[in-house]
Amino acid sequence: FYHGALFVESPEQAPVFFIGDAFSPSGMDDYCVLNRNLMHKNDGFLYCLSQIKELGEDYWLINEHIPHVFRFSAKELESLERGFQTRVEAMRALTVWDDPNYAIDEQWASLYPYGLEVKSGTIHEFNVILTNHSSKRRDYDVQFRLPPGAELMSVTKAIKVPAGALSGVRAMIKLPSKPGHYLLRADIKSDGIDVRDWIESTITVKSGE
User: Fold this and answer.
1) How far is CA 29 from the centre of its chain?
2) Domain range holding 201?
3) Which of 81, 104, 127 is the endpoint of a domain?
4) Does the pLDDT value for residue 164 go beyond 70?
5) Cα–Cα distance for residue pair 159/129, rounded to 1 Å
6) Cα–Cα distance between 156 and 100 in angstroms, integer?
7) Confidence band, pLDDT 50/70/90 cuts, at residue 34
8) If you average pLDDT over every residue of the chain, what do you get?
9) Does an H or E element contain 89, and which?
10) What is the pLDDT of residue 1?
11) In the listed set 104, 136, 162, which residue is the last one of a domain according to the structure?
12) CA dihedral 147, 153, 157, 158 (to 10 degrees)
């Protein structure tokens, strides 16, 4: 869930934390839902804030998109954490499922590969990757919606995913023999969750010649 960060220490110098684009001098740099700004207690921004708190008061943060180094005071860090906790509660109230992370993580379910170019009649592996944000184990049932001319050769059964864990469903699909552009989709069902055409993969079939 995290992009890379690099902590650099040098004798007689304040340590420098290269943090990507997680924070800016104004606070959390979280304008993009694809950044997966998760809200669990031990991941996402709460985890990142805890890492910065451990640095003490003498450090510098570097965001590669900002030309200035910066750092937060203890008071500023507390304010950021309070604001984020308020956001968590607001998202919890707006979310119809049992955890607010489903509302802000559009990648809790994904179909891989997303884009594919193959020859006519190819049999290819597809994987549905599921993140269980719930605090309980979930049973997931995945149903593939095949494009015209495709055939499901094999698929794993419904899976049980522990709380906070990732798992997946694997399918082998014979793709259409007719050249063209196709869309493979999948439905996902679990306790209280029933979403259709939720994830997709784009497929281009080219002539085998």
Assistant:
1) 17
2) 109-206
3) 104
4) yes
5) 11
6) 28
7) low
8) 90
9) helix 74-94
10) 47
11) 104
12) -10
